[in-house]
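We keep the chain:
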Amino acid sequence: MNAQELIIGHLLPIAATVAILWLVYRLLFRNSNRLYFNRFFLLTSMLLALAMPLLGLLSGIEVPQMATLKQQLFNGIMLNEVIVTPDGQPMLPEVTVTTNTTPSRFSLWQVIGGLYLIGVGVMTVLFLFKLGRLVVLIIRSPKRKMDGFTAVYLSAVPEPVEGPTPSQQGSFSFFRYAFFPNENVDPDIMRHEMSHIAHHHSWDILFAEVMMILQWFNPFIYLYKKELQSFHEYQADRDVVATGVDKKNYMMLILQQCTAVDFSGMSNKE
């Protein structure tokens, strides 16, 4: 597969689907309080976008006429008029191929493809860096097995770990690990993180991160991740409030957590 086929046949259909479905969500569903449906819609939208190139092939879009049209548009092929001879028999049209006589080391599509791969590489490195920081915290921090998850306490993390100091950290979770600044954890904060873990919110963030790597040039994909993170917080807050806690005290507790530094874009931060 060359750069032109990658961009036209795969990247652009995915990007267009992501944008169109985001606009549909924005117009029809964003103000809805159906958190489960909204979460399902956004996740399904990203999956459908990934499947668009395959759906195009299966539906027969790549028929010979379409292939000819692509050649005309991108390879400079132009058909002449059909000539009819005196005896009424049409002559086959001549095909004129225009070529660029100016020597060039790289074509425009190759340059665009190269820039895309550079962006993928940069986003992949950032993804691995964020993942590595979480792994380092898990390894170097004291931990305690709880019912259904592992609590990680950040107060004993040595200073060489880059980023905010433990005193600046809020509570957050990543898969079955819940991170807390110290062992004096408010029960409501613990319930909040347990809700993130129970609803498997980290899988959503991981999927969004992969989409951001593949579609780093698409501004709509970043909106998907931000919206999913908002749903996660609303869902966790709803679960905690459903236990009968005082809503005013809980709101103040959440505001205190919001002033903490966001450690990682891959975690479900309080």
User: Anything to note?
Assistant: The chain has one domain: 3-62+104-269. Residues 3-62+104-269 form one domain. The mean pLDDT is 81. The longest strand covers residues 150-153.
